[in-house]
Amino acid sequence: MWKKLVKNKASLFGLCLLVMFILVAIFAPYLAPPKWENEPYRIPRYGWGPEPVPPSAEHPMGLTQGKYDIWYGVIWGTRTAFRVGLIVVGLSSLIGVTIGSISGYFGGKLDEIIMRIVDIFMSFPFLIAAVVFTTVLGKGLNNVMIAMITFYWMNYARLIRGNILAIKEEEFISAAKASGVKDWKIIIRHVLPNTIFPVLIQASMSLGSVVITASSLSFLGVGAPEGYADWGQMVSFSRNWLLGVPGDPLHYWYTVFFPGMAMILFVLAWNLIGDAFRDILDPKIQA
Questions:
Q1: 114: Cβ contacts below 8 Å, ≥ 6 apart
Q2: Which of 32, 50, 159, 178 has the fewest CB atoms within 10 Å, i.e. is most exposed?
Q3: Beta-carbon neighbour count of residue 80 at 10 Å?
């Protein structure tokens, strides 16, 4: 699998991007030393004026309105992106796989009840539901993650359920049942290993979109608190300066370019790797 991953130029580029972000996250304390040891995600500010300051030797990416350091926000925002993406996708997929496995394996009325619950949750527009839920819980990334997990597990449940329905009547499953193997052991040992790969592919491709959604909530003012290192909030600091000044629309380009480019490259990395995993793990494509 590793050979196939690095052999494809697109997936290799995505892997290089991901390694770069991982290194930035690991070495964040050295690339952007925290001003307060107990609050490393708090972006230092160098004044109180509303107008952004262009890049300089002291501040290589410039300062936003309120004089927040863009370099610091982008560097530590990488850790925020990994934290949000891995926690939301990890817990959502775990919940979805658990519920979907139970629904698909046992079937009958239990399957019908679970699927109707899934349909109810899926009837809510995801972003709007997350905004309302976060507003009720209060501002903060932890609440953002809770809201996203609450309305994000259903796709994984439907995906794993469909895969289980396709194989649960296979001979090796029937043989395990006839041998007296307990249902939970059959699910873990026989069912999931043969149905989990599409879920892993979807999870890898969802990491980028989850980070974008969390950044959107921060941009709307219901995500990270002001001054917290988060790419969405860094973009929100530029909202009053997107049009630049008369005759020079790109006068404050740096306020949106650097955090925006970080989000674009992060999503691109996960999408390219997800595509590669699909090509490698999907037996239909291999055939």
A1: 99, 102, 103, 157
A2: 178
A3: 25
